[in-house]
Specification:
With 290 residues, this protein is α+β, with helices and mostly antiparallel strands. It has ten helices and ten strands. It has a five-stranded mixed sheet with strand order 4-3-5-10-6. Strands 8-7-9 form a three-stranded antiparallel sheet. A two-stranded antiparallel ribbon has the order 1-2. Helix 1 packs across helix 4. The longest helix is centred in the N-terminal third of the chain and has 27 residues. It is flat and about 70 Å long.
């Protein structure tokens, strides 16, 4: 059996995800008959049925479910390889570092300064993202390294080195009675009737149950806190994005948040290794503990 081509995998995934040949063909920009023939050709080459079809519906067979599960990361790996190759061959090479906007600001600044002072280091391009996006940026080749945090971020498919740990604070509206407190506990911040904790999207889609507002970005969250609609618990160093309408109150029993320098699993390039060494030299400095 010949190996499947990337184009064929892309066609199959489009149909398998939409379970509709017409919509998949529109998304791919090809005619529906051509897409149907392509899927039939894949099935003939594999010798198995991938889809169950009738006049009203399309569904995956067991073989189709396996191919869909394996095809997604395969396509992602091909795309990542292309992006990494483009960056490596660019006239001016840069190392892309992904980090949550407003997160570990003092450490990020110290890392950029230290890298700039290293005459042999590759210049850094900072890629700011929302919460939980660093892993995807590493795996799809958009970023070479990332600043991440345990226990919040997903490290599947990533390697990393732990740096320093820090306490967490509750960001509350300055007008709320909690803003006058010198400290709080997790039980207290989790049971504030007029300030339900905001809910972030779950991996795979949807939101966890709860009364708090659904949020997708830190800017959205910041405004909701300022409006007195929610609160959040974050690492102490993330206060850099705090608004004048916010107050940070230490949460005494919150788990420590650990800053992690991460990279795609098995892809510790010389440039990334050099930046990792710089990050480790900064470990324990005021940049991480302030």
């Amino acid at each position: 059996m010949d190996d499947l081509e990337t184009r064929e995998l892309r066609y199959f995934v489009a149909v398998a995800e939409r379970l509709h040949f017409g919509r998949a063909a529109d998304d791919l920009g090809i005619a529906q008959p051509a897409l149907s023939r392509a899927i039939q050709q894949i099935e003939r080459r594999l010798g198995v049925a991938l889809l169950e079809r009738d006049r009203r519906s399309v569904s995956l067979t067991a073989a189709g479910e396996v191919l869909l599960r394996d095809a997604r990361p395969a396509l992602a790996a091909v795309g990542a390889a292309g992006r990494r190759a483009q960056r490596a061959g660019a006239p001016t090479r840069q190392l892309v570092l992904a980090t949550k906007a407003g997160s570990s600001h003092e450490f990020l600044q110290a890392l950029l300064d230290a890298n700039a002072a290293d005459a042999g280091a590759t210049p850094i391009e900072v890629l700011l993202c929302e919460i939980g996006e660093q892993q995807g940026l590493l795996l799809d080749g958009s970023a070479d390294a990332a600043i991440m945090h345990r226990p919040f971020d997903d490290f599947a498919g990533c390697d990393g080195v732990d740096l320093d740990s820090e306490a967490q604070v509750a960001i509350v509206p300055a007008s709320h009675p909690l803003a006058s407190r010198t400290s709080l506990t997790l039980a207290e911040v989790q049971h504030v009737p007029d300030l339900p904790i905001a809910r972030w999207p779950l991996v795979g889609g949807g939101y966890p149950d709860g009364p708090g507002p659904e949020v997708r970005s830190q800017s959205q969250l910041a405004q909701l806190v300022a409006l007195g609609k929610t609160l959040l618990v974050i690492p102490r160093s993330s206060r850099a994005w705090q608004w004048p309408e916010h107050v940070a109150v230490p949460v005494l029993d919150a788990p420590l948040a650990t800053t992690v320098f991460a990279w795609p699993e098995g892809r510790l390039t010389p440039d990334v290794a050099r930046l990792r060494a710089t990050a480790e030299r900064l470990q324990g400095s005021a940049a991480l503990t302030a």
